[in-house]
Amino acid sequence: MRKLDRTDIGILNALQENARITNADLARSVNLSPTPCFNRVKAMEELGLIRDQVTLLDADLLGLHVNVFIHVSLEKQNELALQQFEGAIADRPEVMECYLMAGDPDYLIRVLVPTIQSLERFMMDFLTKVPGVANIRSSFALKQVRYKTALPLPANGINLGG
């Protein structure tokens, strides 16, 4: 078992805010010298706490204007049906998120496409043809009020279980 202290939390928060921060600036922001800061980051990467560093793009500027939440119910909820559905959507670039839900529906997916016609093609040419899909309901996002990728971390630290 390992505990993340306030300094570790500060490092993680700074990296969530700006993954491109230099080690020197990161170290300065958490009052460490560069080598111990680098070692802490490396240790957290080895633990799997830091999975990836990504660049967030502006969907609207890139012409992806239609943000839709789609509720999908399956005919059966057995392991094979769930695996088939998850496998079918795993490589679809327009599927931004997919969650297996408790209750109804079975899945909630978020799809991002340029136009309503693109959404129609996704639904008619793909989603309705996935084996085992029984029901599809869509909700369109009119406005994104809040979007964040940073996880809420407690300032006083976290005990990691092993």
Automatic annotation (TrEMBL):
Q: Which Pfam families match?
A: AsnC_trans_reg (PF01037), HTH_24 (PF13412)
Keyword Oxidoreductase set for record: no
Q: What protein name applies here?
A: ArsR family transcriptional regulator
Q: Which cellular component, as a GO term, is one annotated location?
A: cytosol
Which PANTHER family does the UniProt record give? Answer: LEUCINE-RESPONSIVE REGULATORY PROTEIN, TRANSCRIPTIONAL REGULATOR AZLB
Question: Which keywords does UniProt give here?
Answer: DNA-binding, Transcription, Transcription regulation
GO: which molecular function terms?
sequence-specific DNA binding
Gene Ontology annotations of biological process type: regulation of DNA-templated transcription; response to amino acid
From which organism does this entry originate? Pseudomonas trivialis
> Where would I find the HTH asnC-type domain in this sequence?
4-65
**Which CDD domains has this protein been placed in?**
HTH_ARSR
Task: Report which superkingdom the organism of origin falls in.
Answer: Bacteria
